[in-house]
Amino acid sequence: MEALCLLPSWQPRRLPCRVQWQRQNCPAWSLTAVPVPPAGMNAAVRAVVRMGIYVGAKVYFIYEGYQGMVDGGKNIVEANWESVSSILQVGGTIIGSARCKAFRTREGRLKAAHNLVQRGITNLCVIGGDGSLTGLNEEQVEQHAHLNVVGMVGSIDNDFCGTDMTIGTDSALHRIIEVVDAIMTTAQSHQRTFVLEVMGRHCGYLALVSALACGADWVFLPESPPEEGWQENMCIKLSENRARKKRLNIIIVAEGAIDTQNKPITSEQIKELVVKQLGYDTRVTILGHVQRGGTPSAFDRILASRMGVEAVVALLQATPETPACVVSLSGNQAVRLPLVECVHMTQEVQKAMDERRFKDADVHLPCACGMCGADTACPPTLQSNCNVAVINVGAPAAGMNAAVRSAVRVGIADGHKMLAIYDGFEGFAKGQIKEIGWGDVGGWTGQGGSILGTKRTLPGKSLEDIATQMRKHSINALLIIGGFEAYLGLLELSAAREKYEELCVPMVQVPATVSNNVPGSDFSIGADTALNTITDTCDRIKQSASGTKRRVFIIETMGGYCGYLANMGGLAAGADAAYIFEEPFDIRDLQVCRRHGKMKTTIQRGLVLRNESCSENYTTDFIYQLYSEEGKGVFDCRKNVLGHMQQGGAPSPFDRNFGTKISARAMQWISTKLKEASGKGRRFMSDDSICVLGISKRNLLFRPVAQLRKETDFEHRIPKEQWWLKLRPLMKILAKYEASYEVSDSHQLEPVHHRGHEEPAAI
C-alpha cells in the first residue's frame, strides 16, 4: 500500500485541457507500501514523490504499510527529490511493507486517521493488490469523507478487475521466462520433462502467458480445469512430441490449478503421472518468490511512472465529494475507475474461485490455434486447398520468429498449406520458397533475430519475378511480418495489382520493428525487447558512474526518425533528457540541460539519450564535445552508441506474447477472406483486402494501406500522429524540468465493465 496526502486548505488552479498548479500554500502528501511489493513499486514511489514536489507539495513516506499509518511517529517521514533518485531500477519497495491486523478494526483506522490529521493529510494514494486496496473500504470512506483516495494496482498475478495490467506482472513474466529459457537448455541436453509451478492461486495469467511465451507442451490454470481424461491426453501429447524427436517437454502449472472435481492439480502429482505412465526423467521446479524479485522491466517502470503521475493529478482534481478511484491501464490509456466497485468485483471473482464455481467456465484453450503455446501436433480440422505464404521484411526484430510460428500453426490448423519465403522480397523474386510444417517451427518462440532471413529490399524492381513466383507456387494469400519497409512493400504490391493479377490476393502486414514506426499500430513486435536492452544498458552505465561521480553519459539509440526508443527508454531509465526528431531542439535546450544543477546535489550523475536521427547538426559527437568543453572543472562526459545490440537478444515476454497473438489474428483474417471467396474465383482488388494489422489503444484493427497513406510522413518514415508523444512532459517533470502535463482523456470515473467473449484481452 502506498499513501499520498494533501492539506485541505490548498486548492489547485485547474485548466480544461492541461493541468497547471500555483506553487503556494503547499500541501502535505504521504506514501506507504503493499504487504508483498512487486517489482516496479519504487518507480511508482518515485513518480508520486516527484510529481507531488513538482506541484509544490510536501510529500511524506509512510513506512511499513498500514501498520506504519496506525503506529505513526517515525513511520511517517517527509520525502525529498533526491531520496528517490536511485530507486527506479530497484525491486521491492524502499519504504518497507507489513501486514496490519489493527487496520481492519475501527480503533486501528481511527489511530491511522489521527496520525494523518496531525500532519494535515487529507489525500491518500494507495499502491497495492486487492488486499491493500480492500483496506480502503466503504466504511472508512464514509467516516472520513474528507480523505480523498486514489489507488494504483501492484500485483504480479494481474488479478485486479478494472485494469489490463498491474504493476509487477511484466517483471514477473521476465523472471519466469528467464528460468524457463535456462531450464530448456539442460532439459534438452538430458531429454527431460520439466514441470514448472508459477504463482496464481486465483488467476492463471502468469501460467498462460508464460506457456505461450516459451512454447510449453501443456498448461494448467485455475480458471480452466482440464476435461475428464486429461491424464491420458497429456501423456499422449508428450509421447507424440518425443516420437518427433523433440528432446524435452515443458509443463506449466499455476499454483491454484484444479480439475473438474475441484481437486488440486499439483506439480508433484503431474511429475508422478509422467514418470509412471511414460517413464520420462522428470523434474519439478517451483519458482516461488523469485517471481516477485529482481529488477523491474521497462514496461513496469513506465507503467508505474504513468500511474503515479496520474494518481497525483487525480488527487489534485478531487473534491471532498469525489469517490475513491483506482488508476488503471486500458490498452495504452490511463483511466480512472471507482475503487470500491473494482475491489468488490475482484473479491466476488476470488470468492467464486474459492468456492470452485466452474459450471460456466468461459476460458477455453484451443491447442490447435497456437494460442496456448502447445508444441503438439494437431491435425487440421479442414482442407482449404489454399497456399498461404509468410515472409519477413526489413531489419530483424526480436519476436519475429514467434509470429512466424503462430502463423504457420494457425494456418495448418485452418487447413492451409503454409509456405515460407526466405530472405525477404529479394528471396521471393528468386524463388526461395518452400513448404513449412508444424514441427518445423518448434522452439522458435524464444529465438531472436529472423530464422527465415530478412532484408530491406523493396519489391518494386522485382514485381514481375514476384508475380511469377506467386503463380508458380499458387499463393492465395500473403502474410508480411516486418517494419516500415514491409509497409512500403505493401503499397507497391497494392499499386501493381492492376498489372499483375497474381497479386490480387489477401495481404496483411504484422508490424515488427524495434523503431515502432509502422503507421496503423501503437506497438510493433521487437520494440519492447529493444526498450529493455536500452534500459538494462542505462542501468549498468549509471551503476558505473556511482563510484566516479560527476559524469554525464550521452547514449545514442536506434529508431531512425522515430523517437519512441529514446523517449520511452529515457522514461524507463530515469534520464535527464531525451532528444528526439519529433520535438525540435536547439542550442538553448542543450544549455538548459547542461546547467541543470544535478552535479550540485548528492546525485552527481547525468544521463542523456539521443535518437540517432533527431538532428542533422546536433549529433551525438557534437553534444558530447559541447558537454565535455562546457563541463570542464565540473563534470566529464562519456558517449555510448548502442547500435545493433538493440535488435538482438532473446525476445521479451511481451514481444513473444504480442507476436503470437497478433499473427494468429492475422491468419484468422486471411482464412475468413479465403473462405468468403471459396469456389467463386474471386479476385481481391478492394482496399480492405490489403491491410496493416495493428493495435490501437486496446483493439486489434485491420487498416487498409490506402487509408494509412494519408497518415504517414513518408520523408521521415513515421506516422503523422504518435500516441507516446503525450508522455514527453512526464519524463521532463520527473527529471525536474518545467512542463505542462496533459491528463487522461476523461477526468471522470469510467464504469467498470465485465469483459465479454467478444472483447480482446490485454496484450
TrEMBL record:
<dbReference type="GO" id="GO:0042802">
    <property type="term" value="F:identical protein binding"/>
</dbReference>
<keyword id="KW-0963">Cytoplasm</keyword>
<comment type="similarity">
    <text>Belongs to the phosphofructokinase type A (PFKA) family. ATP-dependent PFK group I subfamily. Eukaryotic two domain clade "E" sub-subfamily.</text>
</comment>
<keyword id="KW-0021">Allosteric enzyme</keyword>
<dbReference type="InterPro" id="IPR035966">
    <property type="entry name" value="PKF_sf"/>
</dbReference>
<feature type="domain" description="Phosphofructokinase">
    <location>
        <begin position="387"/>
        <end position="670"/>
    </location>
</feature>
<dbReference type="GO" id="GO:0061621">
    <property type="term" value="P:canonical glycolysis"/>
</dbReference>
<keyword id="KW-0479">Metal-binding</keyword>
<dbReference type="InterPro" id="IPR022953">
    <property type="entry name" value="ATP_PFK"/>
</dbReference>
<protein>
    <recommendedName>
        <fullName>6-phosphofructokinase</fullName>
        <ecNumber>2.7.1.11</ecNumber>
    </recommendedName>
</protein>
<feature type="domain" description="Phosphofructokinase">
    <location>
        <begin position="39"/>
        <end position="314"/>
    </location>
</feature>
<dbReference type="GO" id="GO:0016020">
    <property type="term" value="C:membrane"/>
</dbReference>
<dbReference type="GO" id="GO:0005524">
    <property type="term" value="F:ATP binding"/>
</dbReference>
<dbReference type="GO" id="GO:0046872">
    <property type="term" value="F:metal ion binding"/>
</dbReference>
<dbReference type="Pfam" id="PF00365">
    <property type="entry name" value="PFK"/>
</dbReference>
<keyword id="KW-0808">Transferase</keyword>
<dbReference type="GO" id="GO:0003872">
    <property type="term" value="F:6-phosphofructokinase activity"/>
</dbReference>
<dbReference type="InterPro" id="IPR015912">
    <property type="entry name" value="Phosphofructokinase_CS"/>
</dbReference>
<keyword id="KW-0547">Nucleotide-binding</keyword>
<dbReference type="GO" id="GO:0006002">
    <property type="term" value="P:fructose 6-phosphate metabolic process"/>
</dbReference>
<keyword id="KW-0418">Kinase</keyword>
<dbReference type="GO" id="GO:0005945">
    <property type="term" value="C:6-phosphofructokinase complex"/>
</dbReference>
<keyword id="KW-0324">Glycolysis</keyword>
<dbReference type="GO" id="GO:0030388">
    <property type="term" value="P:fructose 1,6-bisphosphate metabolic process"/>
</dbReference>
<keyword id="KW-0460">Magnesium</keyword>
<dbReference type="GO" id="GO:0048029">
    <property type="term" value="F:monosaccharide binding"/>
</dbReference>
<dbReference type="InterPro" id="IPR009161">
    <property type="entry name" value="6-Pfructokinase_euk"/>
</dbReference>
<dbReference type="GO" id="GO:0070095">
    <property type="term" value="F:fructose-6-phosphate binding"/>
</dbReference>
<dbReference type="GO" id="GO:0016208">
    <property type="term" value="F:AMP binding"/>
</dbReference>
<comment type="pathway">
    <text>Carbohydrate degradation; glycolysis; D-glyceraldehyde 3-phosphate and glycerone phosphate from D-glucose: step 3/4.</text>
</comment>
<keyword id="KW-0067">ATP-binding</keyword>
<dbReference type="InterPro" id="IPR000023">
    <property type="entry name" value="Phosphofructokinase_dom"/>
</dbReference>
